[in-house]
Write a structure and sequence with these properties.
Elements lengths: L1 H21 L1 E10 L6 H21 L2 E2 L2 E11 L4 H13 L4 E3 L4 H13 L3 E4 L14 E3 L4 H15 L4 E6 L3 H16 L3 E7 L8 H8 L5 E5 L2 H13 L5 E4 L6 H7 L7 E6 L9 H12 L7 H18 L4 H10 L2 E2 L4 E2 L12 E7 L2 E7 L1
Parallel strand pairs: 1-3, 1-4, 4-5, 5-6, 7-8, 7-9, 9-10, 10-11
Antiparallel strand pairs: 2-3, 11-14, 12-13, 14-15
Amino acid sequence: MKITFKLLSLLGAMAVAFAAHAQEQKVVIGMTGPLSGANAFAGKDNENGVRLAIEELNAKKITVAGKALKFELQSEDDQCDPKSGVQVAQKLMDGGVKFVMGPYCSGVAVPASRIYNEGGAMLSTVGTNPKVTQGGYKNLFRIIASDNQIGASMAGYAAKTLNMKTVAVVDDRTAFGQGVAQEFTKEAQRLGLKVVGQEFTTDKATDFTAILTSLKGKAPEAIFFGGYAPQAGPMVRQMKQLAFKAKLLGGDTLCSPEMGKLGGDAVNDVVFCAQGGSILDKTASGPAFKAKFKKRFGLDADVYAAPFFDQTMLIGESIQKANSLDPDKVGAEIYKASYKGIMGTYSYDDKGNMKQAPVTVYTFKNSAPVPLASY
């Protein structure tokens, strides 16, 4: 009798577990970013932001049409390379993924966005080039400020706060680098700053001696660099070696602890950068998020962990409100939303740009980014 009772209890428990599993629906959140190469630090940070949100969404036990949702992460390495990014996009679409976070690099986001649109997926990116949201794709969201805002903010800071009169501009020929440099140049000239030199390099270069020597002779008070930390770090070191006293200005990609690691003490009070978002320590939920992130991953949150976390949580909330996994229905909820996240309020216009996208200017102290002011 005891054996029979135990067997019946076990079978009953198995039946309940099977029934619960049968009522569970898997939802894959795709993630595309540089998980290898010079920008892997950023890709892993973005990925961890999404991973943390997925864990919290699963804890919420969201249901759609009576089925409990089980969110899962599928990360793909696009290497910040347009060709690889398109291949990753096709792989995710072939796998039926409907919600994708990334890419990190504008040069990937611009061509890959067409693949995601044709596949009927929603894309949420930190690609800042204005072209990213000019394709007319209805379920594409830029979850931070654009180059227009970031480049213009840095020009305004140079002219009005640093009281500069002359600048030079260098870009790395990527979609991001060119885009943010163009926006900086346009606003700088509008504000009366004189652009005394314009040069370009690549996103693989490490020796900038020739460019810097040429620009030093033109005596700019600052160089604006449109590019990424793996190039800006060596560049600021070489500026110090050449006794080139100019400041190094840049966009969000320079506002990373990685910049301090690569540039060493050469970055201190020399590098100034503008990053989309508010000062994390000054937001209501920022300190708690930083502590939670550090406890979970053993790392400090970098530039975009919080926006990736926020947008993933907004997608989960919108799925629940729509009671659907259809990206069009979920997207309709996001367009209606005014979602209070870690980094601010997420509310989008009809092109998928944030209606209010704060920008924070940073410098470096002790080789670490320190916020100065938000606009």
